[in-house]
Amino acid sequence: VVGLGSEINESVHLDKLSVLAEGAQVGSQILALGNPAFDGGNMNKSTTTDISYTCLCLQTTWLIAELHIFSALYVLSNIIWIGQLYSSWRYSTLVYYFLSLLSTSFLSLHLSALLKWLMIGRRITKDDMNSSPLWVRLSNWACDYHFRATSTLLYVVGGLSRVFNIILMLHGLDIDYKSGIADLRPFFPSMMNQVVIRRSF
């Protein structure tokens, strides 16, 4: 988003979801990041394109790995629930598959916490510019995608429970047991260790 009265010179790269404040002046070959946008350093157009193509290839590879991870966790959940329900019950097959998907989501969220601490750690946004941009971008995207893809079902079933607060604590979110999150979309593993949530009443 570009605010009114902003002056932007040539070869400026404005990152996704970045906002230029009203009346901002951006020089040539600058990378603008954040909301409000700040100077992320000089940006060479050719290296940006190369990094983007490399990042897209690595993201595609991660999606294939993500499919295998989900399949393996689903098979593990099926093994856990085999023989646990009465076969003569009319809805046992339906409940079996629902519990398998719920267990897969539960196991995937624990794997998401592990990925967050292995790939991102306690890195904060300001430190990202000092790291390798490709690795930072890929690790943030991979952890955020895995969390978004696997948290939906468990959040619908028990999003306001204390169990979900514990899962968010495993991701680094500083939240107390009395708080509940009505909308999970703004929270991602790449930024959870920078957020504090407390119940104020």
From TrEMBL:
Keywords: Membrane, Transmembrane, Transmembrane helix. The chain crosses the membrane at residues 62-82, 94-119. It comes from the Eukaryota. The keyword Transmembrane applies. This is Uncharacterized protein.
